[in-house]
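Table S2 (text version). Query chain:
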Amino acid sequence: MEIRALRPDEFDGVRDIRARAFGPVPDEAWRQRIRRAQPTLEAGRNFAGFDRGEIIATGTLYDMTQWWHGRAVSLAGVSGITVAPEQRGRGVGRELMLDLLERAAAFGHPLAVLYPATTTLYRSVGWEHAGAEHHVEIPTEALRTVAAGRVPLRRAGPDDAAEVAAVIGRAHRAARDCGPVGWDEPMWRSMLESGEHFCYLAEDGFLAYQWNDTATGLEVLRLVASSERTLRALWALVGSGSSTAETVRACVGPFDPVLWLLRERETEYVHRSQWMLRLVDAPAAIEARGYPSGVTAGASLLIDDPQLPANSGHWRLEIKDGEGRLERAAENADAVRLGPRGLAALYAGVPVATLRRTGLLQGGDADALSPAFAATPFTLDYF
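Corresponding structure-token output:
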């Protein structure tokens, strides 16, 4: 199989394999997909595996960032992984993922994230569950009662792409969020010009929502704000639709402030879409990440990463004053031992005690690492 970047004029060839793998793609949906794919096609980030000129596998590497305790880390968003049905079970998917890992490293991304359709394949090449996209249902009437003052808001369009990215970034940085991803300006421009969503921009907040498929409820795709005043104003705007929408399905973090603004809050039904994390460049990922202030920790690590050997070997991990370092070290028989899956889970805040009981971390003294990597990762984007 030859794996290479797709040319823009080859993208239509992806439609057939997508339909065979995931179901028919209507004409209008395909036109929207082509439009959304333009930034990645132009950047050479849409890939396909060819067998005698026929596309048998596809995958995309989005150029993104991911927030970890107030710091944005360069991220490869892995998406659109598809293998032709007649090629499944022959190692095509694994070969494609190994190729994309190497390309993510070449692009300079220390991290890679994906939403798995199958866990087994991705775990076999070093990914591990790290966080989730959360959706909750809120009665629209409950949002109508959120007390809010007047805040200057305006409708956002493609010319606001840079400002939207900056406002969202400042909100995640101020909240010291872990997990949310950031898109670059071309991708935001593409999303804002689609007209699929209703978008509003404030000086320190952003809202994107749409009517759901039943037209009896609203769906909040993203609502972020740096201040209480703007947060209340944006949720009150959503609640103003209570006369026509019974419910709001909202994509929020597990500790989203709106959950503490509601007058009544009893039973909540939460839908979680799990995502998986992979460290592509371990030293760069550790250095770029933010950490809880006032926490100091250190450990000797022995990492075994068969797919990315540059991560393997003996290391010394030090975390202090909100910063981390991972540096080469001499062999240590008492080192904490872990592979790429354990390293990814640790990075995402999974407690050391959990990792030991699953066999993802072994040996050594690693108890101090739990508070150092403490996090509750979430995302507001499905890609």
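Notes on Table S2: The first strand starts at residue 2 and ends at 5. DSSP finds twelve helices and 19 strands in the chain.
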